[in-house]
Amino acid sequence: MEKKIVLVTGATSGIGEGCAKRFALGGYKVIITGRNHNKLELLGQLLREEYGAEVCALNFDVRDREGARRAIESLDENWSRIDVLVNNAGLALGLEPEYEGSWEDWETMIDTNIKGLLAMTRLIVPSMIERNSGHVVNIGSVAGDAAYPSGNVYCATKAAVKTITDGLRLDVAHTAVRVTNIKPGLVQTNFSNTRFHGDDARADNVYKGIKPLTGDDIADVVFYAASAPAHVQIAEVLVLATHQGSGSMIHREP
Ligand code: NDP
Ligand code: 8X3
């Protein structure tokens, strides 16, 4: 049987890297995408050597629509039939009250988390519709369910991911294409280091007194959704760390 193909955006770190490994382990051909060429090279090598996977690496920024289009159009017939699109690339920048936030940070989050995800969806879903087969997994967040203090614009981008995912599910309901929103809670990745602009001590503090989720934990859930029987559409999954009550309530051991 022909191997299935997954494309993961933001595969160079955290949840995306976990997804690339999990799908490689599950026998998929893996298209890893990201904006860091060296990290893509290293991950590609690891997926080939440790998982025996067939790998294709595409180096682009999801905010660059033309670059993304060129990359997707460069895929030859061995790679162009994408079965699973994991829209994972995303970030939070800053944790300040809305009246003190940075316009630049807001634009980067909106351009990446919303417009980047839309660009990839618009590029890849038409061929899924044509084949009447495929699965889009968007990485949302518990932050999209309710705002938490100083989360404002990041939370709004993830609320947008929820609505965009729900909208796509409605629009493809006449086809066999499935659409999933995975909403993680506290996952220890590079996320907080990025959010705090490289302040690693502040980033480490986010995970103090609680055992956070890992990128691999979330990758398992993504793979589970993609592996469900064809008539089963996992619409949405909220995955919290144990001892995390909600996006804004975490029980921490002293
Ligand atoms: P990481 O920072 O570890 O990974 C983020 C990935 O996204 C990196 O590969 C990064 O690449 C990539 N990325 C960021 N901006 C762009 C861009 N413009 N173009 C292409 N790739 C880009 O964080 P996570 O793995 O935690 O985050 C992955 C997703 O999970 C995000 O959408 C995040 O919002 C979401 N999420 C994270 C949670 C958490 O607690 N960690 C919880 C809920 C959701 P680069 O290395 O080049 O920056
Ligand atoms: C990431 C989880 O709670 O830090 O989306 O916003 S949180």
TrEMBL record:
<dbReference type="GO" id="GO:0016616">
    <property type="term" value="F:oxidoreductase activity, acting on the CH-OH group of donors, NAD or NADP as acceptor"/>
</dbReference>
<keyword id="KW-0560">Oxidoreductase</keyword>
<comment type="similarity">
    <text>Belongs to the short-chain dehydrogenases/reductases (SDR) family.</text>
</comment>
<dbReference type="InterPro" id="IPR002347">
    <property type="entry name" value="SDR_fam"/>
</dbReference>
<protein>
    <recommendedName>
        <fullName>NADP-dependent L-serine/L-allo-threonine dehydrogenase ydfG</fullName>
    </recommendedName>
</protein>
<dbReference type="InterPro" id="IPR036291">
    <property type="entry name" value="NAD(P)-bd_dom_sf"/>
</dbReference>
<dbReference type="Pfam" id="PF00106">
    <property type="entry name" value="adh_short"/>
</dbReference>
<dbReference type="InterPro" id="IPR020904">
    <property type="entry name" value="Sc_DH/Rdtase_CS"/>
</dbReference>
